[in-house]
Amino acid sequence: MTAEIIVVTSGKGGVGKTTTSASLATGLAMAGKKVAVIDFDVGLRNLDLIMGCERRVVYDFVNVVHGEATLKQSLIKDKRYDNLYVLAASQTRDKDALTQEGVEKVLEGLSEEGFDYVVCDSPAGIEKGAHLAMYFADHAVVVVNPEVSSVRDSDRILGLLASKTRRAEKGEPPITQHLLLTRYNPARVAIGEMLSVKDVEEILGIEVVGVIPESENVLTASNNGIPVIVDANSQAGQAYSDTVARILGEERPLRFVDVPKKGFLQRVFGG
Amino acid sequence: MGILDFLKRKPEATASVARERLRIIVAQERSTRGAPDYLPMMRNELLEVIKKYVHVDLDAININFERDSGHEILELSVTLPEGKQAAKGDNKDEAKTG
């Protein structure tokens, strides 16, 4: 049994890749899958902070690639879920420290260890790190914000996923592409200040797999080092849970994409 | 819309502007996706050459790159302006009258 490889990518930085990787990996683990989540951002390690395991990093991804540590030594077990592991990015090495062969070896090792899913948290940009993160993927989650530069970059990334990956090069069935719209503000969409779900879907020609509302809980979660999906009371957490369920094949309607109906007093006085 | 909302400055509905701009740029970038990197430069150089003879602007030159199984097609089309506006000819006329 080989592990399913999911890349979380976007092109543009700061759109929510690491937040999404952390919640996606945690959500899959909550569904009972054995999951590893890998930080591909060599030199700018951050996934460990979002996952809350930054003080337990001993060996990292590059150490494994260079044979300085075994996979088992380097995988950090999550403190909440036994079947969830984090592989941190290296902080010190240059970005050429990763090679295609090295990455392939690590992914094969994870398959042999019985992992069901490997989530690859891609760095921003379209350089080597981003290329390696997507190269071996079976599924891609393209994170996009309802904002011009992010939408344009996503289109670029969708093109690369369809041409510059192992599946494309070998003529295998293409990567399953999932578009995830994050930082969505229904109130601003309603007054025409922000691109809508439909706008983004039409421009990119692909349906969304989920819409994560802009939420203060995301910052709170990252402050605490707890993936926001764990916060079942937050809208963002619930939206991520829906997204994970959809990626696992379940059908769920989109939530939190419309402005909540206002009460009588709010309608009279605004607000 | 509440009473108090009338007092607030109304923000512009700019999402439609974003949508139209994205539609155009995404379509344009998709048409040249996978094409060689030299295409934009070649387009500019071709424009310089064509400009010596005819007044055209950048939009008049359309370069299409297609990849079929086994072979690649580079398609170039130049839309010439209507009527006779040959650059050289114009200059000669001006020289005579001036």
TrEMBL record, chain A:
Protein name as annotated: Septum site-determining protein MinD
CobQ/CobB/MinD/ParA nucleotide binding domain residues: 6-228
Self-association state and partner proteins as the record states: Interacts with MinC and FtsZ.
Keywords attached to this entry: ATP-binding, Cell cycle, Cell division, Nucleotide-binding, Septation
Gene Ontology biological process terms in this record: division septum assembly; negative regulation of cell division
NCBIfam families: minD_bact
Xref: PANTHER family: SEPTUM SITE-DETERMINING PROTEIN MIND HOMOLOG, CHLOROPLASTIC, SEPTUM SITE-DETERMINING PROTEIN MIND HOMOLOG, CHLOROPLASTIC-RELATED
Source organism, top-level taxon: Bacteria
Family under the similarity heading: Belongs to the ParA family. MinD subfamily.
MF (Gene Ontology): ATP binding; ATP hydrolysis activity
One GO term describing the cellular component: cytosol
Function: ATPase required for the correct placement of the division site. Cell division inhibitors MinC and MinD act in concert to form an inhibitor capable of blocking formation of the polar Z ring septums. Rapidly oscillates between the poles of the cell to destabilize FtsZ filaments that have formed before they mature into polar Z rings.
InterPro entries in the record: CobQ/CobB/MinD/ParA_Nub-bd_dom (IPR002586), MinD (IPR010223), MinD_FleN (IPR025501), P-loop_NTPase (IPR027417), ParA/MinD_ATPase (IPR050625)
Pfam families xrefs: CbiA
Residues reported to bind ATP: K12, G13, G14, V15, G16, K17, T18, T19
Automatic annotation (TrEMBL), chain B:
Origin superkingdom: Bacteria
Record InterPro entries: MinE (IPR005527), MinE_sf (IPR036707)
Keyword Cell division set for record: yes
GO terms of biological process kind: cell division; regulation of division septum assembly
GO molecular function terms noted in the UniProt entry: identical protein binding
Family (UniProt): Belongs to the MinE family.
Job of this protein: Prevents the cell division inhibition by proteins MinC and MinD at internal division sites while permitting inhibition at polar sites. This ensures cell division at the proper site by restricting the formation of a division septum at the midpoint of the long axis of the cell.
Name listed for the protein in its UniProt record: Cell division topological specificity factor
Lineage per the UniProt record: Bacteria, Pseudomonadati, Pseudomonadota, Gammaproteobacteria, Lysobacterales
Gene name of the record: minE
